[in-house]
Design brief:
The protein has 371 residues and is an alpha/beta fold. It folds into 2 domains: 9-175, 3-Layer(aba) Sandwich (Rossmann fold); 181-353, Glycogen Phosphorylase B (Rossmann fold). The protein has helices at residues 20-34, 74-84, 94-107, 121-127, 131-134, 136-143, 155-165, 181-188, 217-228, 244-253, 270-273, 290-298, 311-314, 329-340, 349-356, 358-369; strands at residues 9-13, 39-43, 59-62, 88-92, 112-117, 149-152, 172-174, 204-208, 234-238, 260-264, 278-281, 302-305, 322-324. Helix 2 crosses helix 3, helix 3 (94-107) runs parallel beside helix 6 (136-143) and helix 9 (217-228) crosses helix 14.
């Protein structure tokens, strides 16, 4: 591993797996590095589908851990901070934030720590199947006061975090996730060969996201079953996760297995978006779902749950897409049928540029990081 001395900013994240936060951190790193800023992308373990998206101008730092468990990374991150002393360090995702705060304390350095919380902890923590995740509200209450700046990806997340940590709301800054509109539109025009997306095929409903409890795919599948009983439609789900077999079993129980396909993680979901009739996000809770920002860019009709998190903020409370109650599959089915019947929403171009452009988001982060 080749390191430059005293980077202006380091970004700390576990690995470059296929999540939205990882993609955002890569985009920020690339943007700053290409402007001549010295950036270290510090990874617990190098790997993941976004690794080849990192610009050659970004310095990748491999902490060399055998796995992605964050506790093992603490002494290595302490060593990195003591040796290279970045001016600022941005940590994203909850556990990484806690580790960064603790490592700075143990290293005894003056590196400025900015943590980016990306989910509603009061909702997601108690519902997690992992015991450690259920402790995240308590952990945040203990560690986050020691960060130099706390960022939330939506106002909803910021308000939730203020409640969880007992910190004043004004201590928590909202910075939305950025998007790369030109890149998204270029990728949306790439060809794909899936037979369900040919010009003469039946209408396709698209869902994009990990197959985990947070995304509440059972509600979407039940809604789709209602629509399928009246319309000739199909459902494509992009994303991987531990619930795949369980969800596939549910499609058989609902009698829709032949009309639903689970494709797994794909590098280019935008080509699917540009050819589907709508995108549906059925989440029980969120932080700021990047897929909605990307879908607005592609100009595909959107249906989303008005769940805790930033979904409503992205859609400007229903102006740019249809919002339905969490878990209400009947309301979701009605919304799907309305879109199939031609329901339109306002043009989001100006809204996207004002709220989610990479340039403005990167500049706001830069001010918080102080470099």
């Amino acid at each position: 591993m080749k390191l430059h001395c005293s980077p202006q900013v380091a970004i700390f994240i576990r690995t470059l797996s296929g999540g939205g936060a990882e993609r955002v951190m890569v985009n920020l790193a690339n943007h700053w590095a290409e402007k001549g800023i010295k950036v270290d992308l510090v990874l617990v373990k190098v790997g993941g589908p976004y690794l080849d998206k990192v610009s050659e101008t970004v310095n990748i730092v491999d902490l060399g851990c055998k796995n992605t468990k964050l506790l093992a990374s603490i002494p290595k991150l302490v060593g990195y901070l003591r040796t290279y002393r970045p001016k600022s360090l941005l940590a994203a995702l909850h556990y990484e934030c806690e580790v960064a705060i603790l490592a700075r304390y143990l290293a005894g350095v003056k590196t400025r720590i900015v943590v980016s919380e990306r989910n509603t902890l009061s909702v997601g923590g108690p519902r997690s199947r992992e015991f450690s995740a259920r402790l995240t509200p308590i952990a945040a209450r203990i560690t986050y006061p020691f960060a130099d700046r706390i960022v939330a990806v939506s106002d909803s997340v910021a308000e939730d975090l203020s409640t969880v940590t007992h910190l004043p709301r004004q201590r928590i800054q909202t910075i939305y996730n950025p998007h790369l509109s030109l890149h998204i539109l270029e990728k949306a025009n790439e060809s794909i060969t899936h037979p369900w997306l040919s010009k003469d095929a039946q209408p396709v409903i698209l869902a994009v996201g990990r197959l985990v409890e947070q995304k509440d795919y059972p509600t979407l599948l039940r809604a789709f079953a209602l629509v399928k009983s009246q319309r000739d439609v199909r459902l494509i789900i992009l994303g991987s996760g531990h619930l795949r077999k369980q969800l596939e079993t549910l499609t058989k129980e609902l009698g829709i297995a032949e009309s639903v396909t689970f494709i797994g993680f794909v590098d280019n979901p935008y080509a699917y978006m540009s050819r589907a009739q709508m995108l549906v996000l059925s989440s029980a809770w969120e932080g700021l779902p990047n897929v909605l920002i990307e879908a607005l860019t592609v100009k595909i009709p959107i249906i989303a749950t008005a769940c805790p998190g930033g979904s409503s903020e992205i859609l400007d409370h229903g102006k740019y897409g249809r919002l339905v109650a969490v878990g209400d599959f009947e309301a979701m089915a009605m919304a799907i049928k309305s879109v199939l019947d031609g329901e339109n929403f306002a043009n989001p171009v100006e809204w996207i540029q004002r709220k989610f452009s990479l340039e403005s988001v990167a500049n706001t982060y830069q001010a918080s990081l102080g470099f």
